[in-house]
Amino acid sequence: MENEKDFIQRTLVVCKPDAVQRGIVGEILQRFERVGLKIVGMKMVMPDEKLYEKHYEEIGKMITRRGEQTFRYNLEYMMKGPVIAVCLEGVEAVALVRKIVGPTEPSKAEMGTIRGDYSHMSFGYSHVKGIGVPNLVHASGSVGEAKKEVELWFGEEELYDYSDLSEVFTR
């Protein structure tokens, strides 16, 4: 039998270098907060190649799914500047964040999603240019990935439990 805790999830969002450099991190985070997700951890970091290899291949299987060249393009793109790592919590947070973010390929993202409103590049164009796809954010793809990613990016001491006002209406 399911209970309330089965529905409350934590998920990782990484505002990528293009989001940071364009100055739209606040607008991105506002979308998550407006639907009732709460920020339980956040930090600006400049990860090294080792962290990205763990994130994109050990957890996300990017090389396995898309090939070494795609991974290299993405790695170069991610190393262009600092990122903002955010742990969000809420009811079915993983699926909700994916819905708000939109598909990985910005050219396929609907208007109203973060990628649909703020980016537009296709995988084809990025491959022709030999660059990673500037798609603003990473969002965990599944509950299992989210758990592993949050553990990779945050220590327990960097995550906070607290009640916010929306919990008055949902819990």
List the helices and strands and how they pair.
Elements: H1 4-7, E1 8-15, H2 17-22, H3 25-34, E2 38-45, H4 49-59, H5 62-66, H6 68-78, E3 83-91, H7 93-101, H8 114-118, H9 123-129, E4 137-139, H10 143-153, H11 167-170
Antiparallel strand pairs: 1-3, 1-4, 2-3
Helix pairs in contact: 4-10
Describe this structure in words.
This protein has 171 residues and is of the alpha+beta class. It contains eleven helices and four strands; from the N terminus they run αβααβαααβαααβαα. It has a four-stranded antiparallel β-sheet with strand order 2-3-1-4. Helix 4 packs antiparallel against helix 10 (143-153). The model has no long low-confidence stretch (mean pLDDT 93).
| Discrete helix count | 11
Envelope shape: globular
| Low-pLDDT runs | none
Secondary-structure element series = HEHHEHHHEHHHEHH
Span from first to last CA? 18 Å
- Structural class call reads alpha+beta
Strand order of the largest sheet: 2-3-1-4
Mean pLDDT: 93
Describe the main β-sheet briefly.
Answer: 4 strands, antiparallel
Question: How would you sum up this structure in a few lines?
Answer:
The chain contains eleven helices and four strands; from the N terminus they run H-E-H-H-E-H-H-H-E-H-H-H-E-H-H. With 171 residues, the chain is of the alpha+beta class.
Key traits:
alpha+beta, 16% strand, 4 strands, four-stranded antiparallel sheet, 171 residues
